[in-house]
Amino acid sequence: MISEIAIFEASDSNIDLSKSDFPFKATLEQHLRTVLTFDGAQAAYYGQVIEKPHIVIVFVNWDNIDSHVKATQSTKFPAHESSFRSNLVKDDGPGAVFHVPFKENMLDALQPKTSSGTIGDTEMVFAHFQPSPLPQAAKDAILESFSHVEPFIKRHGGLTGYRNGWAVESLSTPLLEKSDEGKGKCDVYVNLTGWDKMETHMKFMETQDFKDNQHWFMDVEGLRGAEIVHARFYQV
């Protein structure tokens, strides 16, 4: 399985995806249901960035990257893409489409279930590394450093899932906003952490344990920046 991740600025700056009757939400779901009719499409999720409410992030799980490429080459795809962009995406806004082969099903991080059965919030880290492309040995060393993060997070409760992987493509950064001071192409590491609620994560960041261990992430060689945001995702 591979996840297609699409980041875009919504055409409606006042969207509220928590409201089931919101017109933008209905249109987005309609388009994602069309995506799920393509061979190889497994599941689709969408969320609104809490810190940047005008930004929408979509995950579509595919059998493999070839399945997604084949879908884009089908006769019905151009009309679907044109309609998606004209109805949902703000012209000249920030955005990116890329793929991440998460090693395991990331559902417990993307739709974290709380003890009461409701859906919690997902912390997303998009970390930018250069030079790009990084040698595989460098990527493996970075993942080894990051492997120290999950255990100390678990000590504090509220964690429901933890998944990570590297974007297949080299990407122009930042991903979530337009900037005249872009860093050029970067290799992007993506981390999804499911929390029972965003507030739990914010409190965790105030702990001494976090301060003592953040070097495993912040001091990694080649790190040029990171975008860290939260969203609540909904499944189509």
Description of the molecule:
The protein is α+β, with helices and mostly antiparallel strands. It is 30% helix and 31% strand. It is built from 9 helices and 9 strands. It has helices at residues 23-35, 65-72, 77-88, 107-110, 136-146, 149-154, 198-204, 208-213, 215-218; strands at 2-9, 41-49, 55-62, 95-100, 121-129, 159-166, 171-172, 185-195, 223-235. Strands 1, 2, 3, 4, 5, 6, 7, 8 and 9 form a 9-stranded antiparallel sheet that branches. A hairpin with a 5-residue loop joins strand 2 (41-49) and strand 3. The radius of gyration is 18 Å and the shape is globular. The model has no long low-confidence stretch (mean pLDDT 91).
Number of helices: 9
Query: What coarse outline follows from CA principal-axis ratios?
Result: globular
Radius of gyration (CA) equals 18 Å
Poorly predicted runs are none
N- to C-terminal distance: 18 Å
Task: Write a concise synopsis of the structure shown.
The chain has 236 residues and is of the alpha+beta class. The chain has 9 helices and 9 strands.
Which labels suit this protein?
236 residues; alpha+beta; 9 helices
Task: Spell out the blueprint of helices and strands.
Layout: E1 2-9, H1 23-35, E2 41-49, E3 55-62, H2 65-72, H3 77-88, E4 95-100, H4 107-110, E5 121-129, H5 136-146, H6 149-154, E6 159-166, E7 171-172, E8 185-195, H7 198-204, H8 208-213, H9 215-218, E9 223-235
Antiparallel strand pairs: 1-3, 1-4, 2-3, 2-9, 5-8, 5-9, 6-8, 7-8
Helix pairs in contact: 1-3
